[in-house]
Amino acid sequence: MGHPAVSPSGAERLCPAGRSPQPPTRGSQLKLISALKRCVAAGAVILAAVSLQPTSASAAAPPVVGGTRAAQGEFPFMVRLSMGCGGALYAKDIVLTAAHCVSGSGNNTGITATAGVVDLNSSSAIKVRSTKVLQAPGYNGTGKDWALIKLAQPINLPTLKIAETTAYNSGTFTVAGWGAAREGGAQQRYLLKAQVPFVPDSTCRQAYDELVPSEEICAGYNEGGVDTCQGDSGGPMFRKDNAGVWTQVGIVSWGYGCARAGYPGVYTEVSTFAAAIKSAAANL
């Protein structure tokens, strides 16, 4: 998953704002990811996106690689945020997104949530302004990458329930977003979707020394080719529970590049923070 800084109000992988640095390679440059994530504190915006890029530079690069366009109404809980991040309807008037997508907690009327469409240019799009933001308490750029955005009015669409235990932190997940279809590419007009398999912490730590296993969950193919990327940060990673209901297990957070072999996407582990999210939402 790639991450670019977009504006002082959001953040995921671009730093400084407006620039999308090349992700670090393993070795001494690994520590650069901390600096990138901490750019949020400096007012940068880190964003991640559903990356559907080819596995090699010589591969063809059609508009969507590794994923497909979502159908209208397929994921009605998906939300696009004006700072360039994704999110999901936790409640009809609350969006769950990534902490690095916002600049802190408090009253905030500067974010617009777009919902109800797969085509962001559709005249049917529902657009609602924010009123408040709550960034995860204690967030400092490492772990705890979640935030809630209160909306000025409810959006009458289905919400996405969150995982409250680790029971669904395995198998194959779905990711969706309007982010770049290739590393360094432009964000998309249409909602894209893809599936990514769970990656054990032990395997993920071989790629990322700074992984926080108790707070983060990894997913992706070892050979690369499918991932989240610039512009998908804050969006949900989800799967169906035993009753067939979509359940959010992750929040797009960070990673090296987009769909690179050996570098899975890193997601906030929602079940770890479920109680805190529920409490915060009740008091937002």
TrEMBL record:
GO molecular function: serine-type endopeptidase activity
Region (Disordered) residue spans: 1-27
Keyword terms of this UniProt record: Disulfide bond, Hydrolase, Protease, Serine protease
Gene3D superfamilies hit by this protein: Trypsin-like serine proteases
InterPro entries assigned: Peptidase_S1_PA, Peptidase_S1_PA_chymotrypsin, Peptidase_S1A, Trypsin_dom, TRYPSIN_HIS, TRYPSIN_SER
GO biological process: proteolysis
Residues annotated as transmembrane: none
The keyword Protease appears for this protein: yes
Peptidase S1 domain location: 64-282
Pfam families the record matches: Trypsin
Superkingdom of origin: Bacteria
Protein name from the UniProt record: Trypsinogen
Source organism of this protein record: Streptomyces pristinaespiralis (strain ATCC 25486 / DSM 40338 / CBS 914.69 / JCM 4507 / KCC S-0507 / NBRC 13074 / NRRL 2958 / 5647)
